[in-house]
């Protein structure tokens, strides 16, 4: 097979993104497709067999497209582009899958945008449905994208409040023994949400909006009896909500309100695993008008590459355990 180099003309920004700091991105592409990646100026040169070059070219073009949109390119983006090139999946981008290019805010690291097809479908569902379930493993962006979407609605005045709720399982929903006021008691459980909001809004704007009551945090138990109107509600770590809690929180929706429920059914911390309300609610409500369900997989993990491998290892162990149990039952 021919190993002649193929040159792809790119903008300077795209060429830098493909190369990456200390040529780290280029090295990932080289390892994935057994090609040589060079950036002589004005673009990228790929040397390798025809199959490797073709797949590497798809990855390079996906990275370049994101760079030309003004998006920062991290190693996670490169890994996603490589994965899509290998499987023939479409690269996710702003303006695709029914997304409004102005729907997401610009964070401190640039425009927030989906990195995988499933993330894009999730954001499309958030824009179209009053209630969305985002279900899947850690590191797939479920919470961050929900926060980004809610922050965008708040900034555009489409909702009056952003409410974040989460079951405080470790404290058994009994937070009285912890020091401080309610916010100080709950904040440790909400660290991922605060990090996402800080990244999107900035620390000062987040502080002001919290003081004005536009951004609120509350354990699920504290939502009982309330009607949430003109609000975007995020129920995070919902696998640790009981069935009764889930029914209660889902029925809090008032006029002009929207809700997203996120969680990983494989990470239940409840004493009685069968009492988890997430999988139960999805089973009951999937297909109901106005409700969307997005399922993430290990392929959507955009954290450290080890996270994807860890998730796959646990999935394989679960599948093997189920197979063993089925064999014993026969």
Gross morphology is: globular
In order across it, which strands form the biggest sheet? 8-7-9-10-6-11
- Percent helix, as a range, is 40-55%
Strand content is: 5-15%
CATH superfamily of the largest domain: P-loop containing nucleotide triphosphate hydrolases
Supply the number of helical segments. 12
CATH architecture of the largest domain: 3-Layer(aba) Sandwich
Cα separation of the termini: 52 Å
Low-confidence stretches: 93-102, 171-178
Number of structural units classed as domains: 2
* Name of the CATH first level of the largest domain: Alpha Beta
* Assembly of the depicted chains: single chain
Mean pLDDT: 82
Task: Describe this entry's structure for a reader.
The chain has 330 residues and is of the alpha/beta class. 43% of the residues lie in helices and 15% in strands. It contains 12 helices and 11 strands. It starts with 5 loop residues before the first strand and ends with a helix. 42% of the residues are buried. The model is unreliable at 93-102 and 171-178 (pLDDT under 50).
Which terms summarize this structure?
Ribosomal Protein S8, Chain: A, domain 1; 11 strands; alpha/beta; 3-stranded antiparallel sheet; 12 helices; Rossmann fold; 2 domains; 330 residues
Brief overview:
This protein has 330 residues and is an alpha/beta fold.
List the helices and strands and how they pair.
Blueprint: E1 6-9, H1 12-19, H2 24-33, E2 36-38, E3 43-47, H3 50-68, H4 75-87, E4 106-107, E5 110-111, H5 117-128, E6 131-135, H6 142-155, E7 161-166, H7 182-186, H8 191-201, H9 203-211, E8 215-219, E9 231-235, H10 243-250, E10 258-263, H11 277-285, E11 291-295, H12 305-329
Parallel strand pairs: 6-10, 6-11, 7-8, 7-9, 9-10
Antiparallel strand pairs: 1-3, 2-3, 4-5
Helix pairs in contact: 1-3, 2-3, 2-4, 3-4, 5-6, 6-8, 8-9, 10-11
